[in-house]
Amino acid sequence: MKIRLIVGDKVATATLYDSATAKDFASLLPLSLTMTDYDVIERVSELPRKLSTQGAPEGMAPVAGELTHYAPWGNLAIFIKSRSWSRSLLPLGKVDEGLPILSQPGPYKVRIERVTP
Questions:
Q1: Nearest to 45 by CA among 68, 16, 14
Q2: What is the DSSP code (8-state) at residue 48?
Q3: For the chain, does the N or the C end have fewer beta carbons within 10 angstroms?
Q4: Which sequence spans correspond to the domains of the chain?
Q5: pTM, whole model, 2 decimals?
Q6: Which CATH class for the 2-114 domain?
Q7: Do strands 86-87 and 59-60 pair parallel, antiparallel, or not at all (unpaired)?
Q8: What secondary structure letter does DSSP report for 60?
């Protein structure tokens, strides 16, 4: 599923993975969130609720542009740079275009919505 992430008048696009966690995230859309900096390599925001972890891996090593869910905290994390493997970090999708828009220092507001065919 394609989504758009709107920051001001700029738009980034991403593709969600085919997983229970990503489908649960999609069920929350549209969402308006405030992204903040975390450890200089990611932008994070709390979600309205924790997402499904059914069939999810134990963790992952995210690359730049990856959208993830950190299960213990229940947040969304967009990685600006790659990092080593992290337990309980679950893949949601990957930015297709516009990572620089999402890489700006926080806090900033983002609206995430489905791209309708």
A1: 68
A2: S
A3: C
A4: 2-114
A5: 0.95
A6: mainly beta
A7: antiparallel
A8: E
